[in-house]
Each structure stands twice: as C-alpha cells, then as structure tokens.
Design goal:
Layout: H1 2-14, H2 16-43, H3 50-57, H4 61-83, H5 85-90, H6 96-115, H7 117-130, H8 143-169, H9 172-196, H10 198-205, H11 208-211, H12 225-249
Helix pairs in contact: 1-6, 2-4, 2-7, 3-7, 4-6, 4-8, 4-9, 6-8, 6-12, 8-9, 8-12, 9-10
Subcellular location: Membrane
Protein name: ABC transporter permease
Domain ABC-2 type transporter transmembrane: 64-186
Length: 253
C-alpha cells in the first residue's frame, strides 16, 4: 500500500495538469487582490490589510476548490482509462480496493495543495502591499489555522466525491463536466427539494456543500465544531467506500 501511494504521489508531481492548475490558481490569486488595490487607490478608499482580505474573501476559495477537484479528477485519474494506464494498473495483481484508495490519497493531496494557494498567495501579496494588520474584534484568534485546516479537510471530502465520479464515468470530459455541474448545482437542488420534502433540508444542513460556507465564519461555537469535523470525515469514508465498490465491479477496457 505504501508503494502504491508513493507511486501516485510521484505521478502527481510529474502530472502536467496538476502543475498547470497550480500555476493558473497562483496567477489568479495574485491578480485578484491587485484589482481591489488599484481600484481602492484610484477612488481613495482605504486598502485591505492581509487579515481583512483573508476574512472577506476566504469564502471565494470554495469555487477554487470545486473547479480544481473537477478538473484534477478528469485529468489526473479519468485520463488513465483512455491511455490504458488504468487497465495495466488493474491487471497488476494488486487488490482494486487498495489501488483506488492509493489513487484517492494521491488525488486528495493534489487537490488540497491547490486549495490553499488562493488564501496563502493572495493574503501574502496584500500583506506585502498594505501590511497584515490584525484580526478585527470578535474574530477568533485561531481563525487562520482553523480556516486553513478546515479548507484542507473539506477539499479532501470534495476529492472523495470527485474520485467516485471518475470510477462511474471513466472519461475525462464526462467526469469534469458532471463534477462541475454537480458541485455548482447541488446547493440549489437540495435547497429546492427541501422546500417540499423537509428531509432534504436536514441532509443539506449536514452536508459538506453547506458546511463549507462556515469555514470562513469569524468565530465558530464549540457546539458547531463536531459537525464541522465529522461531516467531511464521514463524506470521505462514504464516498471512498462507494468508489471502491464501483471500481471493483468496473470492467476496465
């Protein structure tokens, strides 16, 4: 298992799509704060400090996570079906459950690396331009490590769902297209279903799709923290087990 994970991490480091995704996210993370910097400078408005920018725009990172998971799932995993690599791996004699788990770990590491580019790069740039400042009154002193830690955890939850989609569709285009539509629409779908069937409101309230919005909250009550931690962990386990089940039964051509 250790060698399988090492192999996936090696492929991740060499994967061109992963490098491009990191580069594009970094460039956008540098460009985004500059728009506000020059706009505020021309209008005479006060500049954001690094702390203020992180708190205000941390929620925007959710879109980076969704798009990066969808793109990486298609290019890093699903593309191996088309190239024949997946068939070679599946016929290597290793248990398919272990193969899928190793791929999920490698894929999750890549998605998590991309997920923290925006908060780190943009906050660093704004801090260099205007200073880091200090956290506003009422903001939890552990906001930054908590927000970054939850970002990594929730990205792993999204990655587990994305890996499940690769086992279902096995094609890059279908995986990327369906994943993007699913991640962008699931909030609205569960919200609308909840208006007619209350059960779906409960499902949505305790899903990573809604709780990811709480990552950027200035403070989180101790009563809310267990759900914030347990929901992504259970999502990883459930989606991972479903992915293994599908991958084991899949005919790989």
């Amino acid at each position: 298992m250790y060698n399988l994970i090492r192999s996936e991490l090696f492929k991740l480091r060499k994967d061109r799509s992963f490098r491009v995704l990191l580069l594009v996210t970094a460039v956008l993370s540098l460009a985004y704060p500059l728009l506000y910097y020059f706009d505020n400078k021309s209008s005479g408005d006060p500049q954001f400090t690094g702390a203020e920018f992180l708190i205000k725009f941390m929620a925007s990172n959710g879109y980076v996570i969704k798009f990066s998971v969808a793109a990486l799932a298609g290019f890093f995993i699903a593309s191996e079906y088309a190239t024949g690599v997946m068939k070679t791996i599946a016929s290597s004699g290793n248990d398919r459950g272990r193969l899928f788990t190793a791929k999920l770990i490698g894929f999750s590491v890549g998605a998590m690396a991309v997920s923290i580019v925006f908060p780190i790069v943009s906050t660093t740039e704004v801090s260099l331009l205007s200073g880091f400042g200090h956290l506003p009154e009422g903001v939890d002193a552990f906001f930054i490590p908590r927000a970054l830690g939850l970002t990594l955890l929730y990205t792993a939850g999204y990655a587990a769902i994305g890996a499940l989609f690769t086992a279902v569709f096995t094609e890059s285009g279908k995986t990327i297209g369906f994943s993007m539509i699913f991640f962008l629409m699931i909030d609205m779908i569960l919200g609308d279903l909840g208006k007619y069937i209350p059960f779906f409101t409960t499902v949505y309230d305790y899903s990573i799709f809604k709780l990811m919005g709480d990552i950027s909250k200035p403070s989180i009550g101790s009563g809310d923290l267990p759900a914030l931690l347990l929901v992504p962990l259970l999502t990883i386990v459930a989606a991972g087990l479903l992915g293994i089940l599908v991958f084991r039964r899949k005919e790989i051509k």
